[in-house]
Amino acid sequence: MQALSDTTRAPASEPLEISVGEMPVMAMKLDDPMPSMVRRIVEVAGAEANISIYPFKRSMEYIAQGITAAHWPVIYSPEMDKLDLPYVFSTTSVSRINFVLYSNKGADVDINRIEDFQILTERGIVDLFDFDIEPSSNLLGAIHMVDSGRIDGYIFAGNTVDPIVIEKGYTNIKRTLFARFDIRAVIARTDQTEQIDAMFTRGILKMKSTGELDEFAKLMSVKPYDDWQP
C-alpha cells in the first residue's frame, strides 16, 4: 500500500521523517488522532517534520533501517530498557495506555502462565514482550480468531480493540488487563537522537502545561481501565 504523508513546517529547522504505525480508529488517515497529535507535538516544539502512516511492522522496520528518524506510538516500561533493540525510546511519554488480553472464554487463559497459550500481538511489537508471542499483521482477523476459538488470545491496546469488539458484537471473548504502559516514540540511533528526543520532550511538556495533550488523550479514549466484558 502507498503511505499517507503530510508535512508539518516551522522555520529554521530541517524536516524529520516521522512515521506513525497504522491502527484502526487511531491512525488510518493523517487527520486521525495519533498522527494529529504527533504533528502538533512537532509544531509546538518549533520543529519541522514529514509525517507518514505505514503498516505498523514496516514503520518499526524503517526505524531499524534508518529510513525514518522516529516512529509513533510504542509501548514502554522500564523493563524494556534491558532489551537489545535497534532504536531508543523517547524520554517523555504522552500518556499511559491499557494493554488488554482478549482471550477466548473457553480457553481459560491464565495470565500468570501466559507462555503456555497461543497468544498473538501486532507484528511490529513482538520484540517488546519477554515471552514467546506470535506476530499478526491483521488485527481484525486476530480478534475474529479469538472469538471463534482458533487462537487462545490477542494482546493489544484496549482503546484500539474495544471498539472493534463492540462493533462486531463478539460475545465469546474475555477481557483482562495485561499491563499499563507508557505511550512513547522510538528514535533511530543516529547523531541526532538526543536532539530529536529533546524536541519531543519540549513539545509534549508544553502541551501538557496547556491541557492540549489531555484533549488528544480524550480523542484516543485513553482512560483508566474499565473491566467491562462483552
Question: Could you report the average pLDDT, rounded to the nearest whole number?
Answer: 90
Computed structural class: alpha/beta
Low-pLDDT residue intervals, each spanning 5 or more residues? 7-12
Q: Note the run of SSEs as H and E.
A: EEHEHEEEEEHEHEHH
Report the total helices.
6
Question: Can you walk through the features of this model?
Answer:
The protein is an alpha/beta fold and 230 residues long. It is 30% helix and 29% strand. Strands 1, 2, 3, 4, 5, 6, 7, 8, 9 and 10 form a ten-stranded mixed beta sheet that branches. The chain starts with a strand and ends in an 11-residue tail after the last helix. Residues 7-12 have low confidence and may be disordered.
Would you kindly provide a brief summary of this structure?
With 230 residues, this protein is an alpha/beta fold.
Describe the secondary structure blueprint for this structure.
Blueprint: E1 4-8, E2 15-21, H1 33-44, E3 48-54, H2 56-65, E4 70-76, E5 87-89, E6 95-104, E7 119-122, E8 134-136, H3 139-148, E9 153-157, H4 158-168, E10 173-188, H5 193-210, H6 212-219
Parallel strand pairs: 2-3, 2-4, 7-8, 7-9
Antiparallel strand pairs: 1-3, 4-10, 5-10, 6-9, 6-10
Helix pairs in contact: 1-5
